[in-house]
Specification:
The protein is α+β, with helices and mostly antiparallel strands. The protein has two domains: 110 residues; 77 residues, no CATH class. It is built from nine helices and eight strands. It has a six-stranded mixed sheet with strand order 3-4-8-7-6-5, sandwiched between helices. Strands 1-2 form a two-stranded antiparallel sheet. A hairpin with a 4-residue loop joins strand 1 and strand 2. Helix 6 packs antiparallel against helix 7.
């Protein structure tokens, strides 16, 4: 699933059985990303050929390094401070991996607090300008995906299926996602209307602004009525 961490809404979802590895779906999940956007994903999705493809598109990415990743340190990139243990530029040393990603990578090692305990974690990225701490913070945002699935299961009872055939499960999953998007849209609509009314002082003007705000949302084209980020960006 591709989850927008600004709106906390799913933008692209693949529902399938577990017959293929998750990394095989990464190409489809990231196909709509544009230059300058940021992808943050778990190390299970690490495929160096795909990472190079994202880099060539101008997409920045952050993920965890696999435990068995073989590499050579080229030089120190930034001086470590705070919870940062090291920040180095590296290159992959296994021939197949180096062929898939011949460019330099940035490897950040840091102490991250998880459930009240510090744990050393390694992150890799293709961005060479961000602060080391920003890379760690970005990856921690990925845990919002876990929160999202927890909300889906608890709020929409997705853990209890009424039917167990493939078609029945697919219907329930898609309906749960649709219900979640609609609930988030209703929540956003309430804030939009409240903001619109706050812009004026008289009741007549407030009513007019509310009418205009509702009309704008109702008449927005299909792409942006389902992508709240578009509405928020226009509003700002």
């Amino acid at each position: 699933m591709q989850l927008n961490l600004q709106t906390f809404l799913p933008e692209f979802t693949i529902v399938k059985n577990a017959s293929t590895h998750d990394s095989a779906e990464a190409y489809d999940l990231c196909i709509n990303l544009k230059s300058g956007e940021i992808a943050v994903f778990d190390k299970v999705y690490v495929d160096f050929k795909h990472l190079l493809q994202l880099d060539n598109k101008g997409v920045f990415w952050v993920t965890r390094a696999k435990d068995n990743m073989a590499y050579r340190i080229i030089c120190q990139h930034q001086k470590p401070k705070g919870n940062i243990i090291s920040d180095d530029l590296i290159e992959l040393t296994i021939a197949k991996s180096h062929e898939a990603y011949p460019k330099k990578l940035r490897l950040v090692t840091a102490n991250i607090e998880i459930n009240g305990q510090e744990k050393s974690m390694q992150f890799i990225t293709n961005n060479l300008t961000w602060a080391s701490s920003s890379i760690c913070d970005l990856y921690q945002c990925r845990w919002g995906v876990e929160v999202f699935f927890k909300q889906i299961k608890q709020t929409l009872q997705l853990s209890d299926f009424l039917g167990h055939s493939q078609n029945a499960i697919l219907w329930q999953v898609w309906m749960a996602l649709l219900a979640y998007v609609l609930l988030r849209f209703v929540s956003f609509l309430g804030k939009w209307i409240k903001d619109a009314r706050s812009w004026e002082t008289t009741k007549a003007e407030k009513d007019l602004y509310e009418f205009n705000a509702r009309s704008l949302i109702s008449l927005w084209n299909d792409e942006y009525t389902t992508r709240i980020a578009g509405l928020q960006g226009w509003h700002k």
